[in-house]
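Project channel, design review

CF: Before we commit to the Photobacterium proteolyticum constructs, I'd like one complete example in the thread so the newer folks can see what an input/output pair looks like. Taking ADP-heptose--LPS heptosyltransferase.
RD: sounds good, go ahead.
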Amino acid sequence: MKKVLVVRNDKIGDFMLAWPSFAMLKQSLPECRVTALVPNYTAPVARLCPWIDEVMIDPTAKSSKAEQAELVSDIKQRGFDAAICLFSNGYNAKLLWKAGIPYRLAPATKLAQFLFNRRLKQRRSRSEKPEFEYNLDLIRYFLADNQIECIEPQGPYLAFDEEVLAAQKEKLVVQLALDSGKPWCFIHVGSGGSANNLSLAQYAELIKGVAKQQHCEFVLTAGPGEEVMAASLYELIKAEVSAYVYDTNDGLQDFTRSLACADLFMAGSTGPLHIAAALDVPTIGFFPSKRSATPLRWKTLNTAGRHLAFCPPAGKEQETDMGLIEIEAVLEDAKPWVAQYCS
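CF: and here is what came back for ADP-heptose--LPS heptosyltransferase:
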């Protein structure tokens, strides 16, 4: 197994939860060349992963037949010994089958499984374990199937040199007029359409509650199309809290370096939350209680004790109603925990 292709070509949050899998594979097979197949918007952060040797761009199922045929040809030319598809769908199954990769492993789900010649039965719909553990189970299967000793990975999974962080902090001080002498609490109110999030009013109450105890600088982050939301939240809190809108950056890698500068990060279950967690920035996450979206299923990559999760009460009528999360109760649990990192 000299060349292995790992496929995780969906959203940023999903991709971040594959980092332990890349770590396990590369640490167990250090001489193997590990290539990741990802969509274009995920590629910048994929290039930061120390266990990925090469990044290939997937034009995705929305692309033309000519673009997909070009990708199949490119994969064929690279001569992969194996492909590990961390989630299964028809597009990925056909892609790897057409590319003729001799060893093709994926979860045994849906009709697409029959185009893979190695399958691991998983019941991800039951959400009995974190997503990153389902991914790791596939790597463990692959290693055992090829008689390779498995090296279990340990976080943090992403880090920057002190010089890089110092330069990024200075850049943010200049760009946003932040006080470098105070803790920085980042808040991301967008969701990318992937999961329900708190309302702006709930975030405003949360920020004001934290501010009463901790003298933080609050940084309101925004991705493309989320600028208005961040600006609206700023209007709700500016009279009482030292806050700044951070809606302009120099790309995903630059944004990731900025997240590494945070002392605390709060968000719904979305890509930036999982990037911050891979950096082991202390995180507070807000999740639906729906089985497919719970804090357990989308558990972050933080090391032990550096993550708090909240969700609505369980029940079919309310499991996705984030308005049922009582901020007063959140603050009661969060304040002593936040004090560890923002004092």
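RD: helpful, thanks. The first strand starts at residue 3 and ends at 7.
CF: The longest helix spans residues 327-342.
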